[in-house]
Design goal:
It is a single chain. The protein contains 8 helices and 14 strands. By secondary structure, it is an alpha/beta fold. It folds into 2 domains: about 110 residues, no CATH class; about 150 residues, no CATH class. It has a 5-stranded mixed beta sheet with strand order 5-4-6-9-14. Strands 1-2-3 form a 3-stranded parallel beta sheet. Strands 7-8 form a two-stranded antiparallel sheet. A hairpin with a 4-residue loop joins strand 11 and strand 12. Helix 1 crosses helix 2.
Length: about 270
């Protein structure tokens, strides 16, 4: 599916992120590169170098290939947002399907060394669960004790002919909402209770449709967001060549805060 949504070079997009970081010195950004083509660090490094963005990158003290120990009340395995801002390490980069290179690319963090996530191929509003899906072999208890950050996948697929799956745009105002079976809030709270901790990151489809950002605001305790911009609530469905219009207007991404993060090809949240 990613090949159908070609939007240009990685370096061009990274440059946009770097310019934003240049002009927002008190913000922290997290990027997750899904890397379905298994690009190597040798292939990715020139993209980051061209954008001159690596100077902002966070490098963990434990090393690029070591899963952090779980945080305790007296010691955290991860810095706070303010500590990252003070250290000028305001960009966290996770990459799936990558062999870590602690010498040349200590800031390209193998996703599943540092993150665990729930199932991402969900079909049906009633099928959002909380069990770890990747990396394989984890239970809720071992995920929690591993020190990895919790990423909650919350988006629906729609089965088509020949085994093809596409984003299920029919239920966006449900999946990205605060109420009801299959809602974002319901999924976050259920998993937060099971895991005894809210997710660090949440991924959704089409953050601009439905109150996804407002839902995360509620969880993060954000009541007066700064520098938000109105964005279109249209969903362009390339699979069918149509535009779906939502009746609701939604404001853009939040200014950084210490809560549950928000970003990616969809949306994330800071803890």
């Amino acid at each position: 599916m990613c090949a159908l949504f070609e939007v240009g070079l990685l370096r061009d997009w990274l440059l946009e992120v770097r310019v934003w970081l240049d002009t927002h010195p008190d913000e922290v950004v997290t990027i997750l590169i899904v890397n379905s083509d298994a690009a190597s660090t040798v292939e990715l490094l020139p993209e980051f170098s061209s954008a001159k963005i690596a100077r902002y990158a966070y490098i963990p003290k434990t090393g690029v290939g070591v899963t952090p120990a779980p945080s305790t009340p007296s010691a955290s395995s991860w810095p706070t947002l303010q500590e990252m801002i003070d250290a000028h390490q305001r960009l966290v980069v996770f990459v799936a399907n990558i062999t870590p290179d602690p010498v040349m690319a200590p800031y390209l963090l193998p996703e599943f060394t540092f993150v665990w996530e729930t199932e991402f191929e969900v079909v049906g509003l009633e099928n959002f669960y909380c069990l770890p899906d990747r990396p394989s072999g984890l239970t809720l208890e071992t995920a929690k004790s591993s020190g990895r950050l919790f990423l909650l996948n919350h988006f629906l697929y729609w089965n088509q002919a020949f085994g093809i799956q596409v984003p299920d745009v029919r239920f966006l105002n449900v999946t990205n909402s605060m109420y009801g079976v299959g809602s974002l809030m319901d999924h976050m709270r259920n998993c937060g209770q099971q895991y005894t901790q809210l997710p660090t990151f949440v991924l959704v489809d089409f953050f601009n449709v439905g109150p996804a950002i407002r839902t995360v605001d509620v969880v993060n305790g954000v009541t007066d967001p700064v520098e938000r911009r109105s964005v279109s609530t249209d969903v362009f469905d390339r699979q069918f060549g149509t535009i779906h219009r939502s009746r609701r207007r939604k404001r853009g991404p939040t200014k950084g805060s210490y809560g549950t993060l928000l970003a990616f090809w969809s949306l994330v949240f800071l803890s």
